[in-house]
Amino acid sequence: MTQHTVVLDLAAALATPHRCSACGSTDLSTLTETHRDVLFTCPRCRLAWRFELGDLVPVESGTRTRA
């Protein structure tokens, strides 16, 4: 039987995102926290994101926060 070992970097996978996936801005801020999600917003492109499985996912396609 063959055995495989995988090294997981859980700290990196669970860390707060530092860069907007759309425009690359490093100025993400917390928009709101719910019982299920922490939402982030980008002040440059005003897109709203949630953190899911180690990546930023748009809250809704085309969702933008108020300026």
Report the portion of residues in β strands: 25-35%
The computed structural class is mainly beta
Helix content, binned percent: under 10%
Radius of gyration, in Å, reads 15 Å
Please outline the major beta sheet. Answer: 4 strands, antiparallel
The number of domains is 1
Helix run count = 1
Q: Averaging pLDDT over every residue, what do you get?
A: 79
Could you characterize the architecture of this molecule?
By secondary structure, this protein is mainly beta. The chain has one domain. Helix content is 7%, strand content 27%. Strands 1-2-3-4 form a four-stranded antiparallel beta sheet, with no helix packed on it. The longest helix has 5 residues.
Provide tags for this entry:
67 residues, mainly beta, 4-stranded antiparallel sheet
In short:
This protein is mainly β.
Layout of helices and strands:
Blueprint: H1 10-14, E1 29-33, E2 38-41, E3 48-52, E4 55-58
Antiparallel strand pairs: 1-2, 2-3, 3-4
